[in-house]
Structure formats: C-alpha cells, structure tokens
C-alpha cells in the first residue's frame, strides 16, 4: 500500500543501483521485483544446508532501520551472530515457553523484530521451543488491558512512552485483574516506573538498553 509513494523514485533508484522489492498484486514497472510471485513459485523444500549456512557469522545477515544513534537514520548492518544472540533475549529477562508475549512495536526496528519475534522463537521449552507472541498492529492504551485479559498475556515488551500512555489513561474497573507478570523494554522513566507498579500491581520490570549499531547491551536485573 506504500508503493505509490516510491513509484516516482524508481527510475532514479535504478540509476543508483537500488533494487525495490514489493509485496502484493502487480503489475509493477520495470526494475521492481514482485516478491509475491516469487514466494508463490518457491519450493517448500529447503536447499541443502551448505547453500544457506553463512561462511562467517560476522557476515551481514540483514539491514534494519535505525533512527540514527551514530548520525542520520539509516539501514544498519546486523550480522548473523547478532541475530543469533537475539534468540536469547527473552530467556535472559526471565521469560519461558509458557509465556504469552504482547508485542506492539514496529517490526522495522530491532526491538520489535529481532528481540521481540526472534526472542519468542528462541525460548527453549520441554515440549516445543518458542513462546506465544501476540502481535498488535498499533498500540492502543485504551484496549491494552482488555487485550491482555482476552489473550492471556503474561509478558509485555515496551518502549518507555507506552507505559506512560497506560499510566495517563483514566482509571477503569478491573485494570488490576490481569495475568501480566513481566514488562521488559527501554526508556522507562523512574516516575512512570513507580506509578505503573503502584497502579497495575506487582509486575516485574526489566529495563534494557542496546544500540542497533553498537556492541554493548545493558540489563537492569535488580530493578
């Protein structure tokens, strides 16, 4: 649905050597790769392992949007090793395969896709690996607690302002009747942290910080 914004730029992008990929029904102009046709025609069989296994874990796995810690917004390089490390995120903060994780963060950022989605996939369990992930297309403070009750949510991944939006909502009956036990994310200010726990109950909060373009991650395990 966003292709119309990109279409006028396609000729200049082709001159720069930039390839445009798009999902959805075509037709599309020359120089645009229609992914849906390729996906529909792809075999269900995996290629031999030596075809897709990276030669070096430090090679580029993917490029992901960053808002620009080291300058302007850009596509930041993420290695295979860094992607694999993200598989352990939720286990590091105390989640398990029994948890139901509520994720309303944009998937073009590392927090939503690599920590959120890959983190859920990476949780080991006694019967089957992985935790349940509830994807919300757009965060809604007014719907949040009802979503949690309906879906059986036990873990919430936030950025700091999401918790502020919840605290700023008018008080409602039953807002402490939920199964949420853990909130994990970045940017939660101390005043909002205290207000959140005072109002919504004994939810454990683990504040983390990591840069898409950096190699250091912090976890506030002690609260």
Structural features, described:
InterPro entries: AMP-binding_CS (IPR020845), AMP-dep_synth/lig_dom (IPR000873), ANL_N_sf (IPR042099). Residues 49-217 form the AMP-dependent synthetase/ligase domain. One of its GO terms (cellular component) is endoplasmic reticulum membrane. Pfam families: AMP-binding. Keywords: Ligase, Lipid metabolism. The structure is a single chain. It contains 10 helices and 10 strands. With 223 residues, the chain is an alpha/beta fold. It has 2 domains: 2-42, no CATH class; 86-219, Rossmann fold, CATH 3.40.50.980. Helix 7 links the parallel strand 5 (100-103) and strand 6 (132-135). Helix 9 (160-168) crosses helix 10 (190-200). The N and C termini lie far apart (42 Å).
């Amino acid at each position: 649905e966003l292709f119309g914004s990109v279409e006028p730029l396609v000729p200049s992008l082709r001159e720069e050597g930039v390839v445009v990929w798009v999902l959805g029904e075509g037709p599309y102009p020359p120089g645009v790769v229609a992914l849906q046709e390729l996906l529909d025609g792809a075999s269900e069989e995996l290629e031999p392992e030596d075809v897709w296994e990276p030669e070096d874990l430090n090679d580029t796995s993917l490029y992901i949007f960053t808002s620009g810690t080291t300058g302007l917004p850009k596509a930041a390089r993420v290695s295979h090793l860094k992607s694999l490390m993200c598989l352990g995120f939720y286990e590091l903060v105390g989640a398990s395969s029994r948890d139901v994780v509520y994720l309303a963060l944009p998937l073009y950022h590392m927090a939503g896709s690599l920590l959120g989605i890959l983190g859920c996939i990476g949780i080991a369990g006694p019967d089957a690996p992985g935790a349940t992930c509830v994807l919300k297309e757009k965060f809604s403070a007014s719907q949040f607690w009802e979503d949690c009750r309906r879906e059986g949510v036990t873990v919430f991944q936030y950025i700091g302002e999401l918790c502020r939006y919840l605290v700023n909502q008018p008080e409602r009956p039953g807002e402490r009747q939920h199964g949420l036990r853990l909130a994990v994310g970045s940017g939660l200010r101390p005043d909002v942290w205290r207000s959140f726990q005072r109002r919504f109950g004994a939810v454990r909060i683990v504040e983390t910080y990591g840069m898409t373009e950096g190699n250091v991650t912090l976890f506030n395990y002690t609260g």
